[in-house]
Specification:
9 helices, TIM Barrel, single chain, alpha/beta, 16 strands
């Protein structure tokens, strides 16, 4: 039997289905490479904007009973460092690197995408779903016409795989289909969900931005539902993202229709969790008589 965890997303081949989610441990190329070498099939960087962003003032992260709420504010060094970032990363690992982009204008999306393409990145993920950055993210990603314009223009200017990261919105199915028709090679579903937490003693919101993005186990059932519904509308691969903490969570995403899995918040338990989840999946495949995770993709749709 070959590698039971390998997968191909469009033209992007991964040794295993696990992708480091954007914004998680992606602050430097050396750290990102170290994380990649601990069992990931690919990594996504923190989202780049054209110009350097300092992000929001602290506090920017708070733990809840069911996960984390963060409002970092898309802090990053700006697109001009992408060449150096990718070069340093590739000196330390062969694991594919995907550059995340979050911007507010069509021209800036294209500018950064070309930078990433020319720098030798293995793919681009358009962050069309950040729940807390004004004029960047979900405000763009819920508008099918704007999503179409961005993807079409970016697609014309790059020759590497293009992923659209979509978030929870009322017209997700329409946006997902529009992204496919406009040239996206793959979809990531979903981003964090807009949320907040209030300190009962100070009687004020805890995060400096008041609102942030909820990640962790609380959003997993929502993400599974989104993957399941979108899978029935599109033919391009889907990357499931949201609340994965165990091998069962991964299997659930695959059965719903995901071809690969992004992991983020669970890494607070340490990088060993990736290999722990891999062992669980391989044991599951053997017990159920499957030879590859590819046999699980969308299987829940065939058993209704």
């Amino acid at each position: 039997m070959g590698n039971p965890l390998e997968i191909t997303l469009g033209n992007l081949h991964l040794d295993n289905i696990f992708i480091l989610a954007s914004g998680i441990l992606g602050t430097s190329p050396s750290l990102l490479a170290r994380v990649a070498n601990n069992g990931f099939g690919a990594v996504v960087t923190k989202s780049f904007t054209r110009k350097k962003r300092l992000g929001y003032r602290t506090p920017i992260l708070i733990a809840t009973k069911c996960g984390f709420i963060n409002a970092v504010g898309l802090e990053n060094l700006g697109a001009d460092v992408i060449d150096e970032f990718v070069s340093e990363y590739k000196q330390k690992t062969r694991i594919p690197i995907i550059i995340s982009i979050a911007e507010s204008s069509l021209e800036d999306f294209v500018y950064i995408a070309k930078k990433a393409n020319d720098a030798g990145a293995d793919g681009i993920e358009l962050n069309l779903s950040c729940p807390h950055a004004k004029k960047r993210g979900i405000e763009i990603g819920k508008d099918p016409k704007l999503v179409s314009k961005i993807i079409k223009r970016v697609r014309k200017n790059i020759d590497i795989p293009l992923i659209a990261k979509l978030g929870l919105c009322d017209n997700l199915l329409k946006v997902a289909k529009t992204a496919e028709e406009s040239g996206a090679d793959c979809l990531t579903l979903i981003n964090t969900i807009r949320a907040m937490k209030i300190d009962v003693w100070t009687t004020r919101p805890i995060l400096s931005n008041k609102f942030g993005g909820l990640s962790g186990p609380a959003i997993h059932p929502i993400a599974v539902r989104c993957v399941y519904e979108v899978y029935e509308k599109v033919s391009i691969p889907i990357i499931g993202c949201g609340g994965v903490e165990s091998w069962e969570d991964v299997i659930e995403f695959l059965l719903a229709g995901a071809s690969a899995i992004q992991i983020g918040s669970a890494l607070v338990r340490g990088l060993e969790i990736i290999n722990e989840i891999k062992r669980g999946i391989i044991a599951y495949l053997k017990r159920k008589g499957f030879s590859s995770v590819r046999e699980l993709i969308g299987l829940a749709h065939k058993r209704n």
